[in-house]
Amino acid sequence: MQIDLIQEARRQAEICNACRYCEGYCSVFPAMHAGRAFSDGDITQLANLCHNCRGCYYACQFTAPHEFDLNLPQALAEVRRDSWESFAWPQPLARRFHSHGGAIAAALVLGFALLFWLVRSFGGDGEGFYAALSHSAMVAIFLPAFVVPLISLFVGLRRYWTHVEGARLRLSDFKAAFAKIAKMKDLAAGHEQGCNFEQEDKFSHARRYAHQAVMYGFLLCFASTSVGTLMHYVLDMQAPYPLFTLPKVLGVSGGILLTAGCGWMAALKLKSDKNLGDTKASGGEFGFILLLGFVGFSGMILYVLGSTALMPALLALHLGSVLTFFLLTPFTKMAHGFFRTAALLRDAQKIPN
């Protein structure tokens, strides 16, 4: 990890720890105030607890032009991105995406779409989408694309857990962490009015709600795929499925939430102050948001036009975006969901049973 980023974040954390004005803002400050000295692992843990709500910055009396020049949201954002890059496996892919995310995602989507279009020439083995691309071909492509990123994430999270000196997990740790995740509590900056991400010193729940739409939309889409897999292999119910079946209901509702949430997040990000985040990773963050949003959007378009002559081309484009998303998951900002969960689990371990 980059020592200069750690040292600057440590300097700011020590000043914040002495001030303690922001004590109730989010999970960062109770964790920060629990000690007086910060190891590299402590700083990394604080950085991954931070949700970049920016409430502490607008409340701080030591920001520029004060000589302390505090900008804790940016300092922690830089350490956070550096931690994802340092713990990722293989590491060079993570560093490349965060600086050139949009171009990499677009190139891979188009490249994989062309690949699916070429595979289509071998013919299908069923109805609906399987008439354009066989079920066996989809499994042969997507099974490795799902398993390999999971292995990569496991390696990265294991490195993180060792670095922050995580202990054996308890059931209470999971309950505490997932309760915060479900409500996106730390995106409220400790206030009932919300956080300060896109409106500076004005409070708003917009970013919190946009994140919830993306998270629950993604989970619904994943549930749709999982249910469809069980119906196919266990119940011998072959796709395509009618509208009022569980895979379709979950998938359509998830696709709408995912598309709307990503569009909302992109709009909020355009309104936010870039200098309160990691400026080096802004391209990667936008690339990830647009990629995830396109996965949902292309899926919805495919659903609407799936019975037309456009279906094969739309299917290739949608599957290209899905394959790109899976393969890049450990190296894009999608990894933040896993690392932030790990940070909340580590934080929960400090709560006595």
How many domains in all?
2
Q: Would you give the CATH topology of the largest domain?
A: Fumarate Reductase Cytochrome B subunit
The CATH first-level class of the largest domain comes to: Mainly Alpha
The termini sit apart by 33 Å
**Number of separate strands:** 0
Run of helices and strands: HHHHHHHHHHHHH
CATH architecture level-2 label of the largest domain: Up-down Bundle
Q: Which blocks of ≥5 consecutive residues have pLDDT under 50?
A: none
Keywords: Membrane, Transmembrane, Transmembrane helix
Transmembrane segments: 101-119, 139-161, 213-234, 246-266, 286-305, 311-331
InterPro entries: Citrate_utilization_prot_B, NarG-like_sf
Protein name: Tricarballylate utilization protein B
